[in-house]
Write a structure and sequence with these properties.
Strand 4, helix 4 and strand 5 form a beta-alpha-beta unit. Helix content is 33%, strand content 24%. It has two domains: 141 residues, 60s Ribosomal Protein L30, Chain: A, CATH 3.30.1330.10; 187 residues, Phosphoribosyl-aminoimidazole Synthetase, Chain A, domain 2 (Alpha-Beta Complex). The chain is built from eleven helices and 13 strands. It has a seven-stranded mixed beta sheet. Strands 1-2-3-6-4-5 form a six-stranded mixed beta sheet, covered by helices on one side.
Amino acid sequence: MLPSWIEANHVRRRFSVGKLPAELLARLLERYRLEDDRVVLGAGIGEDAAVLDLGDKYLVAKTDPITFATDQIGWYAVHVNSNDLVTTGATPLWFLATVLLPENESDEALAEDVFRQIHDACAALGVSLVGGHTEITYGLDRPIVVGQMLGEVEKDSLITTGGAKVGDAIVLTKGVAIEGTAIIARERETQLRQLGYAHGFIERAKRYLFEPGISVVREATLASRSFRLHSMHDPTEGGLAMGLYELAEAAGVGLSIEEERIDVLPECRKLCAEFELDPLGTIASGALLITLPAEQADGLVAVLDSQHIAASVIGQVQPVQAGVKLQVGESIVDLPRFAQDEIAKLFA
């Protein structure tokens, strides 16, 4: 039961699977904020990592869970947490994992598999696995891994989501929805075969986890070392659309996005159509949003292209009063919002 002061001031409502509503989260973060003078960047909408002043450098800290069923859960946990860290310009260095395994369904082989995945992902990124917690947990029907990634950034190299400036170009790397496509192919493989999808198509979609891949470490590092970026943000739950809204909220700006410039990857387009999902609202790890002065955008796209990383300019940062808009052909409409990630429809 909620405390009486909450009952008196809030209408009881049930939430769908996914993130807390942004307006509620903002209110809770403001009401219960506790910070000391070494907190450079604390909790806030659109900001996915905390930044702490430890003297000569900033320590950047990030935590994120992997809660859906996946045979790559340990690998996912490392890369998803690394993504949010590198969008600040930081280098991922230390990883901790809380591993919760389901009662009556866990054995040595499962534990070994999760640990091996965490180890291999950390080794690939040059990250040390330094601690965490493991337990067999009552009430779970699948493993859950909660990751915590720590890293460092030079004080003059820090990048925040809230750093986007009016007039900036908005660059999107790799396209959408990389993670969503892989999840659909992996979770609905049997159904897709029954529907007549070719083996090669399904395997290609499943491998989206690795190619083009959900990690943005390489492109974020390349971009931040080559250009003076104003902001970076990796869209995840709620897809590209909600990633753009988070960027706009964090920076206090509006956005103008051109639909035709958004690269919806071919397997993504086909699978989203099959299951009636909107690609713009489908979980989008693997894409990276970058804002920088408009005159530098083509240079950034060229540098990324030289390293075989697809990228395109999809819009511009506008004054906040312009809102967050999507140009569809000759029409300009509000960018759609997704209270729940489209991928949740697969598990309803």
